[in-house]
Structure to design on (1160 residues):
């Protein structure tokens, strides 16, 4: 609507005057704030902030903003992240055989709903090559098994580095990433850079064949959970959840179909929130400024 | 709208011609069918049926309908239940200290939304006496602990028998009923006669302090589950579930408040379905003909 | 799961014994009923029935079932429709420039979620040719304006006839079909054969620019409505509706994006119900046996 | 959790530095900000802000905060409102004959969910006297008709003044307030001080018998809308909306029952947001900082 914006996210110990100090710094440099959201976790004594201002008219040149905000974060004994709304993140999508999430993400990207580029799709199966390439992404088939896992993950990390990937989305990638992969990709700052869609409404029905187990249990609702991936499998910070009603007339295959719909909704919503830098992680939870 | 109805529920082994046989029997006796719902569980080879017809004009006198349908069910090697829509079930509500579900049920009964009578409220705490009595129910305070549990349950069963109670609703009754209680109250037919509202979205967060654990986990949705009580604690057949969205701005007390709302909605909905005889239990699940 | 089924839908004046007569006819011919749903509109004195039974083992040969059920419907002074679950309906999709609904329907068809074939896509704009052809559908570009409308509709009807199309889906086709088109395509029986997705939550915000008007009004929910098309514009029988929450932070473009999601959900749900023959129309309303 | 808070709401023309100026003023006086939400309506050039900080430790004495923030608002050419979280608003509830919303509000107030006092209930019918008095509110029966309307409204305004009422809730009060009443009660600042629950999902089915008309139309969803009352009947700023699904099996009375549930949910949610001072009105719309 009115040009690119700068987005600064900060987590630091809480104390009086933080909102003023942050917004004062932006104003002192001539920035016009478009959105400002703050949250205090009183129990943990933590302050979370997301400030977005117009780049146009800001007093600092673009390349000077990163070091300036880094210094600001250090002065407040916190951790900061800076983003420019016109810098499209480069995202890799990991898939296996199911196409519903991949197609949905590629379509939404093409339609301009998700502000990202998808230069790379990696899969342990060859099935979705034409889908990926049809949308202009490179498709790399890397079969994986217990014996080759370490080696394949090395290769995946090389591909991610080569393609300058900032974020990995596991769009029904039916493999568990090793702690080593996460440590190397997420980097030392502890930033969450892998998003997963979980085939169930966490924390219920963790594990295999959730829809069969949901059917056996006779649930009246099923759901899906999009979350960051941490070493605690399926236990990473939740970004978005969705549910849909089911009845006794639904067979297992109906639950699977409805599950696909909720997976697509929860994943695309989570990804959109992430791409707009509206998600902040703290204490194993997320604050979502939407 | 057009006078009282007769409701016949049947579960029997599946074979061709069952729908015809059932509806033919009603028609042969001059019955005008208002609703007919059938479901076949192909995997289990089970046939479930609910037929509702107008009492007025039916060829059999009221007192002859029960033995006739019992004979019909036996001929089909199944189990049947018969209800008249103008016979208000007598329901006892078990509570502890929280009033939100009790008040909601009593209010809905008074408003004509729940077709039942509530002559009896039993509690292990004295707190809700005036609420119960304000709506014309007898309130019996029966403190309970591990040592007295068996004895108190005997007393509860006596009260239920005296008051000719057909259904027990656990409306935030923070005690577990013993298998012996269930066996004696549910009776030999295996009919489910106790409904519970669970303080969480089953099967997630079973057990104590679900809202604290949901908050710690950072969920984006919470819910409540109304189910029949079986010996498998919290594992009985689910009747209705409800959810509501939460955010990082919600404190534990907000989750508790939102939880209360979903509990009231799920419980009143489940009870209404039960009272209209729209719920049938099979294989640990429910078919809900709504 | 167990082979193809026969689905018979009937609407006729209500009288005692109808359920028995219908199911008796199926049973007399050796049919094993899988689903039977009936509804009585007491006010209108109408009886609606949907019966589904296994084709395998049924006593009448396939080609004899249609005349037999037609005779049955006539005897009951009603109107019947017969379908075989293994006969995939041939569906034409009408579009303009927006691709979100078209893509969603084609993808779901390919994934086996919608039991239909889509041999034909007709548009008044050339934009979506590659999308349609990518999924194997013929794409016909027919520009339309007030002067050519009658002529273009003749051409459309010819194309529908040639391709033996049973159902038309208006997937964001931004043109109004003429009464003459509907009369000729729907046929004399008054069957509803055109489904539309409406860009709003009917009956609110009928007409142009609904999302701008919803934004101006400051609504907290927006929705979409899938309905059969009747001569009363936007007034045809509603099949499915969906909503999503919005906030003051949403700009008009956010409402448009959320609107697209709800449109896809409502349209695909309505189409699936139609294809499973779970929808029956009476008195300008639908009964949905799901 | 940590003592009472001060809440300042401001609407003023947008310009750079506003967030900084506001939070700087709070910090300069030693205030510890708990929540800060800002929204810019770019089209209108308006800036909306809600800041909440701890009263304890703040540098200004309580009675000095109002004039100080008034001066601040004037300096920014805007309009401000100040609230203290420990000052319970005095609320009057207007009702007619239906009790579901009144009971729900009184119960939630008693349960501590709604931070208000309800000293006064006014009705044009005597039916709900015992309900109001059972919760400790004064009940005043003021019959009204076209001839007496002006006179009765004068009497109502006198009662509101006497009881020092800050907010009026129309909880199924089936009368229209006159523009004169609104002008006199809302006061010169244009603040919205009357909340209504509308018996439908606005803007659909405005007017009489919405559930009958919704049933005739065969809708699959019904809803309720809580909004501020403006002179444009049913056109005031929307605060909260809720919906629930319906089916062809629902009779008009089922729609009425489901409507009651959604009315209670939407109204209690709107009232809670208002009482927490999370709602701001601008350009006929609301910003809801929840």
């Amino acid at each position: 609507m009115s040009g690119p914006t700068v987005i600064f996210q900060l987590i630091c110990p809480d104390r009086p005057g933080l909102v003023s100090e942050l917004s004062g710094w932006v104003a002192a440099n001539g920035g016009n704030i478009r959105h400002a959201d703050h949250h205090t976790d009183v129990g943990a004594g933590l302050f979370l902030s997301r400030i977005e201002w117009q780049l146009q008219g800001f007093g600092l040149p673009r390349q000077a903003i990163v070091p300036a905000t880094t210094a600001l974060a250090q002065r407040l004994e916190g951790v900061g992240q800076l983003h420019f709304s016109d810098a499209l993140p480069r995202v890799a999508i990991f898939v296996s055989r199911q196409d519903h999430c991949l197609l949905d993400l590629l379509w939404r990207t093409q339609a301009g709903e998700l502000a990202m580029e998808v230069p790379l799709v990696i899969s342990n199966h060859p099935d979705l090559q034409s889908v990926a390439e049809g949308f202009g992404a490179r498709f790399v088939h890397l079969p994986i098994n217990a014996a080759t896992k370490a080696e394949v993950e090395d290769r995946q990390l090389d591909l991610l580095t080569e393609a300058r990937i900032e974020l990995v989305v596991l769009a029904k990638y039916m493999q568990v990433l090793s702690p080593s992969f996460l440590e190397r990709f997420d980097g030392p700052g502890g930033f969450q850079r892998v998003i997963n869609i979980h085939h169930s409404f966490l924390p219920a029905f963790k594990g295999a064949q959730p829809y069969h187990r949901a059917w056996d249990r006779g649930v009246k609702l099923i759901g899906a959970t999009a979350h960051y991936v941490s070493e605690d499998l399926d236990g990473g910070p939740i970004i978005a959840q969705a549910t849909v009603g089911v009845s006794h007339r639904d067979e297992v295959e109906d639950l699977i179909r409805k599950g696909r719909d909720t997976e697509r909704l929860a994943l695309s919503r989570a990804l959109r929130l992430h791409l707009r830098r509206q998600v902040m992680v703290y204490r194993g939870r997320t604050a979502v400024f939407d």
